[in-house]
């Protein structure tokens, strides 16, 4: 008894092609297996992407989530993400980042300070933006602090002083009017 070999099937021991179906498997099942393999590979890719995103968040310190997480610093003292906080370089009294030399506003206030060293606007800008060298900054800071104590940079204090001044003028005007009336009445009598 010899086994009958079908002419369409490959001989035993020979390899079938990758595109060909396994012997004895119906075509519908082969397609189903391929779609399952694609789905599995897609799931694996998604898991890898999620893992990579999670690792990136851990490296950056996750800004929105846990605020107690400390930023990792490199050997030079800079943050690991390469962003340097310029506020560490601020001078005393400085509130804003120093504008570049080519900035027209900076040029205006520097020239104003040279022409009028007592200009309140120029002093305020120079201190709050840190325009001058450290030694000049310290000298000007004393002027700035004395002006600030007087309330010249506080708009509420300025309005209050103006209202008091107007009230005192009214009081003086009313006193003069009373004197004039009383003086006129005496002359007429």
Question: What shape does the CA trace take?
Answer: elongated
- End-to-end CA span: 161 Å
Q: How many strand elements?
A: 0
Number of helices: 5
Largest sheet: none
Summarize model confidence as the mean pLDDT.
75
Q: Helicity level, as a percent range?
A: 55-70%
Report the sheet-strand fraction: under 5%
- In terms of per-residue confidence, which ranges show pLDDT below 50 for 5 or more consecutive residues? 66-72
Assembly type: single chain
Structural class: mainly alpha
Radius of gyration: 42 Å
Explain how this protein is built.
With about 190 residues, the chain is mostly helical. About 55% of the residues lie in helices and about 0% in strands. It contains 5 helices and no strands. Helix 3 crosses helix 4 (about 135-150).
Features:
elongated; 189 residues; mainly alpha
Topology:
Elements (H helix, E strand, L loop, with lengths): L26 H34 L43 H12 L4 H10 L4 H17 L4 H34 L1
Helix pairs in contact: 2-3, 3-4
Question: What would a concise description of this structure say?
Answer:
By secondary structure, the chain is mostly helical.
């Amino acid at each position: 008894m010899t086994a009958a070999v079908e002419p369409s099937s490959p001989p035993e021991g020979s390899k079938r092609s990758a595109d060909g179906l396994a012997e004895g498997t119906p075509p519908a099942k082969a397609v189903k297996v391929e779609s399952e393999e694609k789905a599995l590979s897609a799931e694996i890719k998604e898991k890898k992407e999620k893992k990579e995103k999670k690792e990136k968040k851990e490296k950056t310190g996750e800004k929105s989530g846990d605020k107690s997480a400390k930023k990792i610093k490199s050997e030079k003292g800079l943050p690991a993400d390469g962003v340097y906080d310029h506020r560490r370089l601020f001078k005393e009294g400085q509130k804003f980042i120093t504008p570049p030399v080519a900035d027209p506003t900076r040029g205006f206030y520097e020239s104003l300070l040279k022409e009028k060293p007592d200009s309140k606007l120029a002093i305020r800008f120079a201190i709050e933006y840190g325009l001058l060298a450290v030694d000049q900054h310290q000298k000007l800071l004393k002027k700035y602090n004395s002006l600030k104590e007087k309330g010249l940079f506080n708009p509420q204090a300025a309005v209050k002083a103006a209202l008091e001044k107007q009230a005192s003028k009214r009081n003086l005007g009313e006193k003069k009017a009373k004197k004039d009336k009383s003086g006129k009445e005496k002359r007429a009598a």
